[in-house]
Amino acid sequence: MNYDQVFDKAIDRLHAEGRYRVFIDILRNKGKFPNARCFAGHNGPKPITVWCSNDYLCMGQHPKVIAAMEEALHDVGAGSGGTRNIGGNTHYHIELEAELADLHGKSGALLFTSGYVSNEATLSTLAKILPGCIIYSDELNHASMIAGIRNSGCEKRVWRHNDLAHLEELLAADDSDAPKLIAFESVYSMDGDVAPIAAICDLADKYNALTYCDEVHAVGMYGPRGGGITERDAVANRVTIIEGTLGKAFGVMGGYITAEQKIVDVIRSYAPGFIFTTSLSPVLVAGVLAAVRHLKASSEERDAQQANAAMLKSLFSDAGLPVMMTGTHIVPLMVGDPVKAKKISDTLLAEYGVYVQPINYPTVPRGTERLRFTPGPQHDAVMMRDLTMALVEIWDRMELQLQKAA
Question: Residue 130: is its pLDDT beyond 70?
Answer without folding.
Answer: yes
